[in-house]
Amino acid sequence: MTRLVIEDVSVDFGGIHALKDVTFSLESGSIVGLIGPNGAGKSTLLNCISGITRPTRGRVQLDGTVLSAMSSAAVARHGIGRVFQHPELVGDLSVHDNLLIACHRSLDYGLVSELLRLPTVRQQERAAADKVASVLSRLGIADSAGTSVRSLPYGHRKLLDLGRALLMDIRFLLLDEPIAGLNDSEIARLGEILLGLRQEFGLGILVVEHNMPFVSRLCDRLVVLDLGQLIANGPPAAVLSDARVMSSYLGEVADA
Amino acid sequence: MSAAADIIRVPKAPTSAGWGAALVALGLLLACAAPLGLNGYGLYLLTLTEIFALVALGLNLLTGYAGQISLCHASFFGVGAYATAILTQKAGLPYLLSLVAGALFTTAIGALVALPALRLKNIYLAIATLGFGVVLQKIIFEWRSLTGGGGGLALTAPHIAGYELGATGLYYLTLAFLTVGLFGAWNVSRGRTGRALLVIKESEIAAGSLGINAARYKVTAFAFSAFYAAIAGGLFAYLVRYINPESFSVGLSISFLSMMVIGGLGTIGGSILGAVFYVIVPELLRGIKDAPGLVFGLLLVTVMVFMPQGLWGMVRRLARRSAR
After folding, report:
1. What is the mean pLDDT of residues B242-271?
2. What is the ipTM of this complex?
3. Nearest-5° angle of CA A38, CA A42, CA A48?
4. pLDDT tens, residue by residue, A243-254
5. Which domain does A137 fall in, by range?
6. In a domain, A49, yes or no
7. Nearby residues of B176 by Cβ (< 8 Å), 6 or more positions away
8. Contact residues for A186 (Cβ-Cβ < 8 A; gap 6+)
9. Of A123, A126, A249, B105, which sees the most CB atoms within 10 A?
10. Which helix (H) or strand (E) holds A234?
């Protein structure tokens, strides 16, 4: 079993402590929800894990390999997939070609072969196109393969961003508010897809999400951040009845 | 799942690639026959068009694909021209060898220019490359013993395998480089490098999350486009047979950028059309008394206002409409 360990991670932005000594771990095959009020440091933590932000102190490890000193590209190569809150797609390209970009690491040809488009290039590109096709049908958006991303509904774009992560042979998936902007049927579909991924590939998933019913149905465990500190870590039922969590987070929701 | 994958195996319209191939074949046929029907000046213009198209093809990968603006490509063009000329004329190397060696030398400079550019974006990058361009041009100017300084270099006709390369020979040599360059640029644009560059233009953070090393690809794009510019420069030197530092000013860099934008940024066909427009249209306007520059300027404005996707975008839209 693979373990992604977040170890005493702190991030200071100027004088502000965005994260303070956060420690928890994520095992392959588990789905963990990362919750907390706005500004709690959830996205900062995802950025730390994916190598976009460097921790001021502490580290992130994957089975003993320290990820926190690596570039985001290197972290991705170690099998950590990231899906952003707002999908970052190439508007000019089709759905199919956007997914093809994510096959970058699995295509193993040099610039000279590419310039000449040698048989190995064509063969590898065909194999990548097949992988893309299978991911498209898994996501249920195979019909839109040739459509330009610009004309794609928002929900499908988010699925597409998830599809890109799936094409990268990842072991862990970091999702930032995956259901924001999705309709009910899309939310249900996303839940099914995530559970399927866990079952089939033993993917470990860390999901930042505000929607409590979705999170408590999906996750094995919840980690709660408040003002950069970890205040709870446990099964959803226990965490959601915790007094501190109630006052810091759910209380805020009730007030709103 | 595999059955579903089979059904959707072909996502793109196959006709688009077919059209492209037909268009290239037609263009090549016309280009091969062109010297038969052209006088010396016409042949010169057509050779110049092909040379500029080669620069635009390379620059398109850097600016159109990777989104990096360069204002020093005239200097790469110039370094290629001088390196080829000096290696041929002063070191006595064969012309073709000098051309390739000069281009490789310029490629290394292109990669060096990219290193500081990794920290800069947009207009800031443009200004930094402007600075590089000025420095390179100044070096050519001041290094009199090698380059002849402001007096320039006069060149004699090049030889290939003992045969003197006349205007027609140079035209076909340029056409050969353009054809190979077109093939290479097209292959790169539809391969993993082209796609990586497109993501980098959209968002470097997204590129990182996909395991794409943005810095490495930006250096590659700079070096690649410098190579194209330098080959074009080495051909240009022997087209005009006289080079001086003034020929490679920032104004020319801006012209290269305009060619791409007029033709259609991020498209291969646009790079060619843009070069054609830039060389041929001013010639057609020559007859207009006093005001060819004015009309050309207004034409540029008109194209940009009514064809924001450039000439190539217009061609594609017309082709699509007629296909319906």
Report:
1. 93
2. 0.84
3. 145
4. 887 777 655 554
5. 94-168
6. yes
7. none
8. A155, A159, A179
9. A249
10. strand A229-234
